[in-house]
Design goal:
The protein is α/β, with parallel strands linked by helices. Helices cover 49% and strands 9% of the residues. The protein has a six-stranded mixed β-sheet, sandwiched between helices. A two-stranded antiparallel sheet has the order 2-3. Strands 4-5 form a two-stranded antiparallel ribbon. β2 and β3 form a beta hairpin. α7 packs antiparallel against α8 and α25 packs across α26.
């Protein structure tokens, strides 16, 4: 073998070996604690060896015909591996590493300049943009998302012009999906909005910190694993990440304090001139992640993200995670789905306007919801029959798929042998309150959404347009409040919104102290109160319930209110002074008090 052939042949052999290993791990499940970890280590090692080899022999490889897009493809595969590991472990460092590689591909223009007539390479570039968009979305890199969207749009138009015989309709749909997503997500519409992630500076309330630190329940559970699932027709999504799951995913992660998370990062410059990477050697600083993550933060809880799963797949994932759940740990399950086949929640929206007589007529005209409520009537009376557990359901399946796609409350019971924190966001959520008292081992914590959302007007009332109201209350309570009362959110209102956030922070701090000092707090809540993520969800639920209780009259309002089981202390009921005063103060501040009805305690 001639000496000049050794390097390219070795390189091709390394590529083939790495690709074979990549194929083994690409389709492995994204849940479970021990899924293919051995294979991942091997494939990471193979690609790192390949990456290092192409760096050390770049001149010989270019001379032998190595294309720049081939380097970009290798870097893209490494980015894919890192992102896959993030989805399996929820470790922020893997997400950051994926971003580093994708950003380097973009800045070094590995795919730009390739032959216009090479359709295969163009498809590789399209897939790269789609993957980079997903990583940038989850990292809240809003400016980068906008840059990549424009590049994706330009590439699709270029491909349509140069490959007229090829159908790019699917890629046009990808473009429409991301545009719809960023036009709705407040991260993009409000430049300086607060992060969904848990930020110690914003979410740790100084007045309540000492009480939380000293709080000790008879039993303390650690929040280690979560399952996040959404299944609605035509809901806002990008790729396999729906808007509701995106919000909940971020709500269950720590916000790193590193400079990497600045909203408007500066372009790298040398001597005041922007750096041009078009002729770069292909070096990517793989140590950057150490500077972009915060080692002082605890690990994120693992999250299994399920997009439109079959019923059997959902149950299989729950069983796997339940089986692998470490001792003294709790599993959070978030399920968002319609309660009837193919049902879109637009028909379940009522506005808060109109007289009480009008409201009553609205309530009585919907007999189907009354039947939903009656399904759990026997439970309210303290008697449970088999039909209570297999009457109403969540619908997980295409239209016309029959009962095989129905998730009944009874299907959840086997998983109550381990600690469970269950959030149901559905128009049949109240059917799941029959689980309370029917657990098989551990008492479950239940947060159940209203059967119908509440809005000042119908313009924002479609879940397919704005996501779930209940989920938004749990992940961004002030934004949910503003959306509900029709308060228009713009950057010019930041001073008003910051003051509103301050009102909420003060109230949440007081509520946390009350929870910590309460002698009537059920052990189900007490054993998770030390966890910052779950404590924040509990406090936000209290706010959501109080807001909706104040906007609806007592009679006939059950379907518009969320439920929690076991009950939280009466000292934090919607009618308590400390809770009502928060809602009243916030409504006065935003000048929307006319929508609320407050009662004297």
């Amino acid at each position: 073998m001639a000496e000049e052939d050794v390097v390219p042949k070795t390189f091709r052999a390394l590529v083939e070996s790495a690709d074979r290993k990549f194929a083994r791990v690409r389709d492995l499940p994204l849940y479970g604690r021990a899924q293919g970890q051995h294979y991942f280590q091997k494939v990471f090692k193979a690609y790192m060896r390949l990456w290092k080899y192409q760096q050390e022999h770049r001149a010989e490889l270019v001379k032998a015909g190595l294309n720049r897009w081939e380097i970009g493809e290798i870097a893209g595969r490494i980015g894919q591996l890192y992102f896959g590991q993030y989805m399996r472990t929820s470790e922020a460092r893997f997400l950051v590493e994926a971003y580093i590689f994708y950003e380097a591909i973009l800045k070094r223009r590995y795919f730009e300049g390739c032959g216009v007539k090479d359709l295969r390479v163009r498809f590789k570039e399209l897939r790269f943009y789609a993957r980079f968009l997903l990583v940038s979305l989850i990292l809240n890199r809003t400016e980068m998302v906008k840059v990549v969207v424009e590049k994706l749009r330009a590439l699709i138009d270029d491909c349509k012009a140069n490959f007229r015989e090829t159908n790019f309709k699917e890629w046009k749909l990808v473009e429409q999906e991301i545009l719809r997503f960023i036009n709705i997500d407040t991260t993009f519409t409000i430049t300086n909005s607060r992060p969904f992630r848990y930020c110690a500076m914003l979410n740790c309330h100084p007045n309540s910190v000492p009480y939380v630190a000293r709080f000790h329940a008879k039993k303390v559970l650690k929040f280690r694993d979560a399952i996040l699932m959404s299944y609605h027709r035509n809901e806002v999504k990008f790729a396999e990440l729906t808007l509701d799951v995106y919000r909940m995913l971020q709500c269950l992660e720590w916000e790193p304090s590193g400079s990497f998370y600045q909203k408007h990062p500066d372009e790298p410059k040398e001597n005041g001139v922007a750096v041009d990477y078009s002729g770069a050697s292909g070096l990517i600083d793989m140590n950057l992640a150490a500077d972009m993550t915060d080692p002082a933060l605890p690990p994120n809880p693992r999250k299994a993200i399920l997009y439109r799963p079959s019923l059997t797949h959902l149950i299989a994932v729950m069983a796997t995670i339940c089986e692998e759940l470490p001792p003294e740990s709790i599993m959070l399950v978030y399920l968002s789905a319609s309660g009837k086949p193919g049902q879109i929640n637009t028909s379940h929206v009522e506005t808060s306007g109109g007289s009480r007589r009008t409201r009553k007529s609205m309530l009585t005209s919907h007999s189907s919801l009354e039947q939903n409520c009656s399904a759990t009537e026997s439970h309210i009376n303290g008697v449970k029959g088999p039909s209570d557990f297999y009457n109403d359901y969540l619908w997980l399946g295409p239209k016309g798929n029959g009962g095989s796609s129905n998730l009944y409350p009874g299907d959840i019971i086997p998983f109550t042998r381990r600690p469970l924190f269950l959030i149901i966001d559905s128009d049949s959520s109240h059917a799941f309150k029959v689980l309370h008292g029917a657990e098989r081992g551990e008492k479950a914590a239940l947060l159940l959404s209203p059967l119908r959302p509440t809005f000042k007007g119908p313009s924002t009332a479609d879940i397919t347009q704005n996501g779930s109201q209940f989920t938004l209350f749990l992940t961004a309570p002030l934004l949910a409040f503003c959306q509900m009362v029709g308060f228009s959110l713009t950057d010019s209102d930041m001073e008003v919104l910051n003051s509103a956030e301050s009102i909420l922070s003060t109230a949440f701090s007081k509520w946390e102290v009350i929870l910590c000092k309460s002698t009537s707090l059920d052990l189900v809540w007490a054993q998770v109160l030390s966890d910052p993520f779950l404590r924040r969800l509990i406090v936000r639920f209290i706010f959501c319930r109080a807001v909706l209780s104040a906007i609806w009259p007592p009679e006939g309002s059950d379907q518009y209110l969320p439920l929690c089981l076991p009950q939280l202390p009466n000292s934090l009921s919607p009618k308590s002074d400390v809770v009502q005063s928060c809602v009243s103060q916030l409504a006065d501040h935003l000048k929307v008090s006319n929508y609320f009805h407050f009662e004297d305690s």
